[in-house]
Amino acid sequence: MALFEHYLYVLNCGDGSLYTGYTTDVAARVAAHQAGTGAKYTKSHAPVSLAAQARFFSKERAMSAEARFKQLSRKEKDALLQQAEHEPFEDVLCRELPSFGIDSAIEFVCRSAAENIDPQYQEFQARLIPSIDSRSIAGVRTPILRKIAKQLVKRDDAKTFLRALPHHSFEENQVHAFALGLEKDHKKALKLYDKFLPYVDNWATCDQLPTKPLMQQPEAALSKAYKWIVSDHCYTKRFGIGVLMQHFLDDLFEPRFLADVAATAFSESTSKPPTENDTYYLNMMRAWYFAEALAHQEAATLPYLETKGEAAPLDEWTRRKAIQKAIESRRITPEMKDYLRTCK
After folding, report:
1. For the CA atoms of 169, 273, 325, 130, what is the dihedral angle to 10 degrees?
2. pTM score, two decimals?
C-alpha cells in the first residue's frame, strides 16, 4: 500500500447495477471482484468492470466520499459518473457532493505531506528509525512538517486531526507533535499530550515533541513528568525523562530527580512485556539524561557514574552508555572526560 493513496471505486455489474467500495489498490481490488472473491454482491452480479475511481489522500476522506456517494439516487450517480468521463472523479465529487467540497483537516495534512515526498530522505529516515515499519515513512523533511503543523492549527477543524488517533504514517505523527507545541492554553496542552503520548511509537517523534507549552506552569509540568515516567509505555516514559532533562537540570533541579530517573524501569507485572526495542530506547534516554546531568550538576551526578556492582544505582549498561555520551559531549571538560575513562 502506498502512503496517502486511498480510493473510492465504482464498478459496473453484470445486471446493470453499481457497486461502490473503498481500497488502497484499485487494480488488485477490481481483480478480486472479477475473480469472485471481492464481495458477495459482485460475485452474484458478475461480470464487473471499473466505472470510475477517485483518489484521496486519507482513508477518512475516501470513506466519507464513499458513504455520501452511496446515499445518492441511481440517476444522481449516473450523472456524476458521466462527468467523470471528462475530468478526475475526485474533482467531480468535491464539486457535486453536498458539503464535501472543502478538504478535512486530515486530508489537508496527508495531501500536504504527499506533495513533499523525498524518496532519498525516506530511505535515510527508515535507517534512522528501525523500530517502525519503513512503509509508514513517506520521507518528508522536518521543516516542511513544521510548516504543515502551523497551517493546521489555524484551521477551524484542526481538532478533528488531533482526535484521529492512531495515525497511519510517521509524518502524521510528526505534524501532530509539532501542532501540540503550538498550543498556548496550558490545560488544553496537558490533555492533548496525555491523549497523544500512548500512540507515539518511535524515538524521533518522542524527542521532537515540543515541551514549551508544558513549562507555562513548571510545577504542573513536573507533576506530569513524574506520572509519565511511571507509565509502562516506552515513549511516554522516555518523554517524561526528556522533560526532566530539558527543564529540570538547572534552577529547578532537585537531587531526587537523579534517583528517580535511575530507578525508572518497566513494571514486571505489565500485561504487555516490553520489547527489546522498548528497553533499548528507554535506557538510551536514561543514559542521555545522566550525561546531560553531569554537565549541569556535576557533584550530584558523578556518583551515579562512578559506582559499580550491586550497590550501583544504575544498571551497568546504562552507566557505561552514560559515560560514553558524556565523553562525546562538548560540555564536559577534558579533565572530566579523562576521569570518566577510568570509571568504565
Report:
1. -30
2. 0.91
